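Sequence in, structure out.
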Amino acid sequence: MSLSTHNVPKLKDPSLLKEAAFINGQFITSPSFTTFTVTDPATNTPIATIPDLTAAETRTAITAAHTALQTFRHTLPRERARLLRAWYDQIIANADDLATLITLENGKPTADARGEVAYAASFLEWFSEEAPRLYGDTIPSSVRGNRVVTIRQPVGVCALITPWNFPAAMITRKIGPAIAAGCTVVAKAPAETPLTSLALAELAVRAGMPKGVVNIVTASANTAAVGEELCVNPVVKKLSFTGSTPVGKLLMKQCAGTLKKLSFELGGNAPFIVFDDANVDAAVAGAIGCKFRSSGQTCVCANRIYVQDAIHDEFVAKLVEKVRAFKVGSGFDGENTHGPLIHDRAVGKAREHVDDAVEKGAEAVVGGGVSQLGPNFFEPTVLKGLTGDMRIASEETFGPVAGVFRFKTEKEVVELANDTEVGLAGYFFSSDIGRIWRVAEALEVGMVGVNTGIISDTAAPFGGIKESGFGREGSKYGIDEYTVIKSITFGGVGNLQG
């Protein structure tokens, strides 16, 4: 198929649109493969037909990665650094086309898509700089005559499962450190947004990536079978997954038989707290960026907004004013600030959360319904008067619905914020330095934003606690997830001779 929807820019390089999986350095397809259709969520127009691979093709990809590992694990760190840098350069050179593909299959506005491309590239740049710094330690031995050192080695073949909401950044955030460590990978592309992953694979080839080092498997109806193969295959030594907590638990069970190394970034239910000593305008701006980025479809979105009594009404009024000014529609229209949700199931969940809240006494101050723009659009919504018995208090909406709760005291709101089984991100606004330290330390989350609604940064470790998972991505810690520490003890060193 070809790009054929509303005002879609033509790709400068049409060869970046791939309708094939990527295994052992080759884009593969076959008349015998079943296929699935990728659609533009703004119009539901078909844009590509992709192979729906099975466990058998996944095993082929794993075998290719294992074969490549035998050589790649022995490459010099500086060689891997240059390889990642070359890939980074390819992404930057093709940023416009990558942004077009992201908007086409994900729906986010092109400005957001361009920002994602830059963010995705930054992980390859960052880990190109981390690769030569895989240091070990010299450890003073407790046994006379012995010397102890540690080295860090690649964990092996890595399976990566990424989501659709950031189709470029989520894959580079995992592949970057894996390559830097000397691992090879088999990545499962998201069924909703595989085109970006496949374009990145093409750019990896152009950067000189050896065959078998990066493999991209595609699946839709066969996703469960492909995922299970990645989990149970003993050749795979590590699984990194970003997605929902229930799926993460299933994958963890499937990995138990081979005791793989795991890192999971799972569901969130982020609190966003505004204390009465905060700068209200800054807090509103933070809430807009945090809650409505990607139309609310991010794991670190504010899901529960708590505002202290004294400034509650002022905050809600200013928030509503900003939301009313949004322009919703096709991501390719430069005037639009927000695009569609990924599919009608996402719209259904947002509608259910709004209806549940309104039935239990909340008020939809703005929005609250399915947009007339199409079945995948939902009106940006602000709800006030929320209480703890409403679904939005305990479930992640993953849509453009801002639910505002009142609170009275610091102790009360921290208890409310922590009253959830997940703990990915949390945010709060305050000008009291003592309160800032107290609340930042008390929130049961892996990441805290203080007086900011945007915490994503290549240099900052990304990950959660509780049922939001474990392990960290990005930052100096990210490469640790793809290495194992080996200790080497030298005996018989003794004293000087003679």
